[in-house]
Amino acid sequence: MKIPTPILKLIESFERLPGIGPKTAQRLTFYLLHFPEEELQKFADSLVNLKKGTKLCEVCHNVSENNMCSVCSDSSREKNVILVVSNPLDAFAIEKTGFKGVYHVLHGIIDPLNNIGPEELFVRELKDRVLAMSDEHVEVILATNTSMEGEATAMYISKMLRESGLGEDILKISRIARGLPVGGDIEYADDITLSRALDGRSQF
Amino acid sequence: MKIPTPILKLIESFERLPGIGPKTAQRLTFYLLHFPEEELQKFADSLVNLKKGTKLCEVCHNVSENNMCSVCSDSSREKNVILVVSNPLDAFAIEKTGFKGVYHVLHGIIDPLNNIGPEELFVRELKDRVLAMSDEHVEVILATNTSMEGEATAMYISKMLRESGLGEDILKISRIARGLPVGGDIEYADDITLSRALDGRSQF
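Predict the joint structure of the above. Result:
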């Protein structure tokens, strides 16, 4: 039995997505066979419009519909508190905490094993951005993941900014706290998390 | 922060798929942001072509590129052994066992709780198909799932075919065996499966 080519092609497209294996791709494709044609057209349109309808904010490089995103064009946000994240989803997650500063989206993480260096990310743009506002007090919060690559990226950016000539009186660089997640059990926490939690202890 | 509309729309499209929740839909959408535009276009094209490029075989109602599918138009298949499945994926799964007969795809299962009756499925077409070949010996193998709905559908079809006036000498109706899956543990099998396995025991 030959599976019809249009079905095979859609299965292949789904298989290229992360976390979707051959079985799931099949299931999704056959599920879509029961969709009305106009729904499939809508799905297809939203795929095509994904990149056509979005650009990167020219200030923070987050995804946006306009040249400047809604955060960067909001005059009530604290422009001298710049939170650095590796991707837009991280910015959306932090936005939910009520953070009032602005963002800088790197669009990736330094990962030498996968040939991703600082040149592939919006790292240089961060330096330019910080230098352009050097007459104010600036805080750069490094909120990359707490994985090995995330720590390395944070370290690289911190070093780069320090070497740009801005003193500690003007430029403050911080890193999000690493410790036990809220509701976490000390008993089950790993060694590194626990030692980070101790190092980062605060007055009580 | 406002998530750009083109992104929201694609997230919504993904969320309509089975087994894809809001978080996964977000992750897939942001992953696709890094795809080149021509890849997105290809994905979109395969969605649109899914229904435009396929039809249902006029004999067995399986998905096919032509009016008659590759199985029904293959003269080496045993046309008088008709295996009834509820959807195309089941037919593809059974095809891998080397089954040499033909299929009949119902495109669903009788499920009164969800308002799906025999009229919504290709049940009547099965009866017509069997009656049209009544001069031969015919075997109908009911291979719907062994769930409650699958059993009910098998029962309904069996009754309908029996009442169509074909005697047991012409029309043989069978049901796939229900028992322990190969490699299964008797200790962990449920009561119903075990009693089905006993009922269906074969000479050794």
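Helices of chain A lie at 5-15, 22-32, 37-52, 88-95, 124-132, 148-162, 191-199.
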